Amino acid sequence: MMKRLGASRADGLCRGVAAALFVLLALGFLATSADASDENSTIAVGGTTSSPLFASFVNFCDLIAPYCGVICFLAPFPTIMQVSRNKTVGNLPLLPYSSMVANGFVWVCYGLLKSLPSVLYSNAVGVVLGAYYFATFVRHCGPMASNLPGTVGLHIKGAGAVILLNLCLAGSKLPDVAEWIGKEGVVFCVILFASPLAALKHVIATKSAASIPLPFTVACFVNCTAWSVMGWWKLRDFNIYFPNLLGLASAVTQLALKGMYGDRAGIEKKLPM
Predict the structure, then answer these.
(1) pLDDT, tens digit, for every residue of 128-152?
(2) Per the omega criterion (within 30 degrees of 0), is the bond before 149 cis?
(3) What angle, 0 to 180 degrees and rounded to 10, lies between the N-to-C axes of helices 177-206 and 152-171?
(4) Cis omega (within 30 of 0) for bond into 96
(5) What's the confidence (pLDDT) of residue 106?
(6) How many other C-beta atoms can be found within 10 angstroms of the C-beta atom of residue 161?
(7) What does the DSSP 8-state code read for residue 234?
């Protein structure tokens, strides 16, 4: 009964994420559609000229990107609440939360050095939420657990090393330090976006996409689309658009598999009678 209740709450939050994204889409469209009143004129976007309609779309993505990022950072919340209620983490890994702290801090430094408030503040929220998830997880994790992967101490040392390294880099006067931190963030994002692809092998093998959460995947699709468009046409920043294009490709792949296989029961091997 408790498992069903937890699952229904998680599903409710996922639906809430999708609803929130829909509201953001509607508000952003209303806020930017006024810019497209003259269809025959052109305006500048990212140093080039484009139609007002396309420029409105780019500005719209610029508007919603930070909020989409925050919504995606909220996705683990129901899982952490379930851990807190059950007083155990079961077989859940700690890696998503330690990497959220480390990766978010890298982008906070990048946003600060490049004077990009949307990058800075959205990832600052991610660092705070990641730290909360991490602390809650550790509170209910056995001290000798080593399947997180590794131990809690290893995760603390790893995240701490990333934070210390980037603090030193950000405080240094090395040339192009922002670009170095940005490339570090790209590597983190490549690793994080590649991790769900391992689960897709199971989806294809069982011909069931029940393990792919549709609302969250849609949220990732909208989030990566917004950041990709903003990074490419607004900022002209490889460190922003490249990892989000990879995330967009990952989301499209998951949505395609969801459409192909749906949530039907997977293929199971029957035992001989």
Answers:
(1) 999 999 999 999 887 667 667 888 8
(2) yes
(3) 150
(4) no
(5) 97
(6) 11
(7) I
